[in-house]
Amino acid sequence: MSAYPRSHPRLGHLLCLAFFTAILGAGAVARAAQDTTASASITIPECQPRSGLPNFFAKLEAGGPVRIAYLGGSITEAWGWRDLSRDWFAKQYPQAKVSQIRATISGTGAEFGACRLQNHVLSHSPDLVFIEFAVNGAGATTRRAIRSVEGIIRQIRRHDPATDVCLVFTISSGMTGELKQNRSPQVVTNMKTVADHYGVPTIDFEPEVMRLILDGKLVMKGAAPAKDAPATAPKVFSADGTHPLFDTGHQLYLDAIVRSVPALKTAGRPGPHALPAPLDADNWENASMVAIDTPGITRSAGWQKIEPPDGTEKSQRISQYFSGVWAASAPGDTLEFSFDGVGFGLSGFRGPSAGLFRITIDNRPPQTATFFDSYSYAGRVSHKAWFYPDDLPRGKHRVKIEFLANLPDHAAILKKDGLTYKAPATAPTPVFQLAAVLLAGSLVP
Prior knowledge:
Layout: H1 9-23, H2 26-33, E1 47-48, H3 54-62, E2 66-72, H4 74-77, H5 81-92, E3 98-104, H6 110-120, E4 128-132, H7 142-159, E5 164-169, H8 176-180, H9 186-198, E6 202-204, H10 206-214, E7 218-221, E8 235-238, H11 246-266, E9 287-290, E10 298-299, E11 304-306, H12 312-316, H13 318-321, E12 325-327, E13 334-350, E14 356-361, E15 367-370, E16 382-387, E17 395-403, H14 410-415, E18 433-444
Parallel strand pairs: 2-3, 2-4, 4-5, 5-6, 7-8
Antiparallel strand pairs: 1-6, 9-18, 10-13, 11-12, 12-18, 13-16, 13-17, 13-18, 14-15, 14-17
Helix pairs in contact: 1-2, 5-11, 6-7, 7-9
């Protein structure tokens, strides 16, 4: 709906401009001027402060030191909004020593985040935790998405009730269809459900990006404009529809944070945050990440500790996140453990050599899985978190993992993502490499 009166439009326009200038300043005038464009159809709030970030700002104003944790995937792992926001807070509060806790692993969502939170975030005692899982969390079921995000919030609250939390919602091209209809993607709606329950503030990067696209000022995916491109040419958000370019997408993300600061700063009062009853009693607040050589995990004789797979140390800092990597040496090697909880997964490595493994839980029919996926198509080896797809009844479960002799059907897996498999001259030898066991629960010795 237009912000201007329908009768006497010119007079209404002038009155509105004068009003916005006097009350809200030039920034609101810019927004009002856009209300007759396509962007006016996007009314999703950019910031919902809820209980705000009172402890974080109180500590900033007191002179720190202040630690900001960034828990997320590749969008946050990249040099971009993470570094830009830390630098911005440091500049605004020069008397405070603002540092960051980088807890980012590409291609991972909230399930893995819940399992590794203690090791990668809470052990460093953050004052504020930014959580970014909107893009990578899209594949989870609604119940699993809510359970895992709720588990993250509850772990933080139990660790230190004074720690502030903020959920941020990034955008990818697959989300634009819903956003054009002025609807938040389902994964964002799931996360907002948790935020409402716990009073956790949210910053939605998506609406402003969508407005600029609808107004023809931004394209979601494309090559970066030439240096001599006209100033009026649309800017490019990303090269692939997901990962923002530094000068455009990441800057837009920072701008959204900066615009949200006044509301986040004034909402709520310093002090411990309440911990209400859970939305889902089977949430992942007891999630954990367990090293492969932990007592209680039984390995067959063929398992060997190895160096991190090629490239992962440089690209993903594997040794900083995991205590070691283990590999099965032959088909038939097994890994067995018991746990008390509602779900489990494995932290392993995708790549062209990633073989099949069989999972048997309790007396359920065995399932076969692999770490190979469409991101392995060019010989790329990288970390991947795999989770058993079914939610389990709360209680004790026995798990057996067996390495098989076969490679997965590469062509069929790549075809699902519209890719064509080019078979190598020599088929790779199957491998099975693990960094940790992931539990929505706790290991039972």
